[in-house]
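Step 1: inspect the first sequence and its tokens.
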Amino acid sequence: MKKIFLPLDYNQVKKLKAGDEVLLSGELYTARDQAHKRLVDLLKKGRPLPVDLRGAVLYYCGPTAARPGRIIGSCGPTTSSRMDAFTPALLEAGAAAMIGKGCRSPEVIQAIRKYGAVYFIAAGGAGAYLSTKVKKATVAGFTDLGPEAVYRLEVKDFPVMVGVDAKGRSIY
């Protein structure tokens, strides 16, 4: 397992290969369909974003409510292809990586190569386990979206695998 501390450094990203197992520690942001649409709409209008995307990792996740005494509820990955229409613009704006599940479109793989990014996959169906890797969770934007708001998560040893590396090599 490779240990990586966030935010990502593009030199780290270049060294990753499709299939590498990685433990992420640091700060990442959750964002699902509606949050992606809003982020891209703000970029198109030249308006500020609620988070700094430079070197950021976007986790395709809509966490459930936390039970008493817990930091966050279940927080497993959602299907990545639903974000494909928005991904190239967010990579261009500085996002360095995404976490989700499932394969990506040829256009997203091309954007990953162009911007030197990486696509991580997390285990589907493991949301309860993944929630134990979250040490802090705060809403960072779009509060009105409820569980689909953008959350800032501090994670420690969050397990992922490289699905598509910066050269466009894919495990799929």
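Step 2: inspect the second sequence and its tokens, then contrast the two.
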Amino acid sequence: MLSITIKSYYSWKNRGKSKREVENSMILKEIIDIRKDKKMRCYGSPKIKLELIKRNLNYNHKRIARIMRENRIFAELRRKHTYKNKGKEKMDIAPNILNRDFNPSSPNKAWTSDITYIPTHSGWVYLCSVMDLFGKKIIAWEVSSSPNTELVVTAIQKAISNRNPDKGLIIHSDQGCQYTSNNYITFIKENNFLQSMSRRGNCWDNACIESFFGHLKNEWLWDFKFHTIAEVRFALFDYIDGFYNTRRFHTGNNNMSPVEYENKFA
């Protein structure tokens, strides 16, 4: 049937796997082991390659991509949700001082903040995060059942306590009502910070923290079913402090985590 001799067939059968086949099997085993960590199931072949390098296994990214493709291993991402744009009343809008300068020369020169919401069986939970743009590290975060100014101020107060920034720090945000409230504006002025805001309806002006929220939801929270705010808090701590800040590769940081990037600067 194969048009070969019996001797050739048994020679092939007894030969065993080639060196490359053995290596491919080993690489596949390591990839599967990496993906046992649920947070890393969002990784495609480029970041899987970086994880393998950490394990002293440096192979061509095309080979890794082929092995993943042949074994139907793909990055697991939730489909993005789009939000309808709603009109807003005229507010006291701060100028866009940041002007998309997302790479300050040192820590505590420019922070950015925003709010997102997370569904639970008992209602919405709101997350306010504060990011230092130097290393894209989330330096503080807070959750609440109410998306009010107090949530934002509490998160930024935590960031101040953690980082002790100098006067003149730029804190950038969108034009959400929490960031245009009198209490928030007074808080910023009392600390001698500079308030900066995105242009209306322009998410790219606050792209870094928008990107973080995207990673958080698409890589981690999308398959959770939360019942209480305590469960949300634990899941956020697990992702932000246990993975995003300390382990997740960031292309803007030369493929270093935010903590590694800041430590290298220090």
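Step 3: confirm your contrast with the notes below.
The mean pLDDT is 90. Residues 19-34 form the longest helix (16 residues).
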